[in-house]
Structure formats: C-alpha cells, structure tokens
Specification:
alpha+beta
C-alpha cells in the first residue's frame, strides 16, 4: 500500500511539472500591464469553469510567483462592479455568485442553476444550525439539546446534502462519532469561514434558537416551528 501511495504521489508531481512546462506562468516576455491582464483573465476563467469555490493554491498554478491573488481578485471585482454577478469569497476560496438584486429574476426564469438549493425541513434546518454553532457534537448531545431524539435519518439527510461530515470521536463512553459542518455548508450559505455565522440575535428573531439555551450548552426549538412528522 505504501509503495502504491508513493507511486501515485510521484505521478501527481510529474503531472504538475508537465503542466508547468505547458503553461507559461511567468509571462516574462510580456509588458507588465499585459502580463497582469493575462493573469486576471486566467484567474477568472478558472473560477468561472469551477463548480465549487476555488482556493488560492489552485489559482496560484496559473499565475507567476510574484503575482498577488488578492490584488487580482480586487481588480476583477472592480471590473464586475456593474455586472449582475460578483466574485465572492466563500469556503476558503472564490466563486462567481449572482447579486441578490437579481434573485427574483433568476427564480422567475425557472432556469436550472449550477447549485440548486437543497430543501430542508424546519427540523433539519434547526439541527444543522445547532451543529454549526456547537460542533463537534454527537447525535446524543444534539438529542439532549432538543429534549428529544435527533434521528439517524435527519443526520443522514444532512450528510447526503453535503452539509455534514464526521468529526473526531467523542471522549465520552463508547467514543461516538461527532459531526461537523463541511466546506459545502460554507459555500451553500455564502460564508467564507464559520466566524461569519450570523449572530444569535438574528436567529432569535427568526424564532429558531435561544441565546440562553445555547449559552447553557443547550438548544431550544420552538415546537410551533417543528412539524409533527419530525
């Protein structure tokens, strides 16, 4: 197994070197202004073609070593200022996102989009919110927070949607698995990092979370907002 892994690693390195040879990253033969412009176009092309946020490491493969990805992104965003879409920092990378002002037009068109929204029940949304704020957390701990069992089906549904992954095993008896949110969760909700989660006041206003309950390591779900089927 170890030998196989080493061969695969060498293969990836060889492929990266081949790409470096095929693509002139430095563009030293171009004037500085044209070089910068070409780097901008390359970065935008990569982001446009990707179906998920593109990280700095990936973008660095198509520009020179001295190129500042952040400055390139700033220049691209300036050019897109009057367009109905923007380059947004989400999930540790960048992605094209339509501006919220055009959301109603996109919905009215009923056109298929790159990332169709996943429909969550109110119970699933509340469980996902609890995990986002309390992670890593076990299903048993979630059940204690809600005051009733959080079913395996609910967790499976959130995992299937790509919002949850397995965290470290809990140090509690039986060492159950914990659950954490994923990069897809950040991307789907337009967050660059978990630090951008909305504050509890906004969630209280929506009637989903109780600040007092969370600060006491518990979660209050208003029964009127949870369907009987859940």
């Amino acid at each position: 197994m170890a030998g196989s892994s080493a061969i695969k690693a060498r293969g990836r390195r060889d492929k990266d070197r081949q790409h470096d040879v095929l693509l002139d990253r430095e563009l030293e033969d171009l004037p500085a202004e044209l070089r910068w412009r070409e780097w901008m176009l390359r970065v935008e092309a990569v982001i446009f073609a990707a179906n998920e946020p593109v990280s700095r490491e990936i973008l660095a493969r198509v520009v020179g070593q001295s190129c500042s990805i952040e400055l390139l992104i700033d220049d691209l965003r300036e050019e897109l200022r009057d367009r109905p879409y923007d380059l947004v920092a989400v999930a540790g990378g960048w992605q094209h996102r339509s501006r919220s002002a055009y959301a109603s037009a996109i919905r009215a068109s009923q056109a298929p989009t790159r990332g169709p929204a996943v429909s969550l029940s109110e119970n699933e949304a509340a469980v996902l919110a609890a995990i986002a704020y309390m992670q890593p957390v076990t299903r048993g701990e979630l059940s204690n927070m809600f005051g009733k069992e959080v079913s395996r089906d609910t967790i499976a549904s959130l995992r299937d949607a790509g919002f949850l992954g397995s965290g470290p095993r809990s140090p509690t008896p039986g060492a159950p698995y914990t659950y954490v949110t994923t990069k897809h969760f950040l991307s789907a909700f337009g967050l660059e990092t978990l630090r951008e989660l909305p504050d509890l006041e906004r969630l209280e206003d929506a009637g989903l979370l109780s600040r007092q309950a969370l600060e006491g390591d518990a979660l209050e779900v208003h029964e009127s907002e949870v369907s009987e089927d859940d």
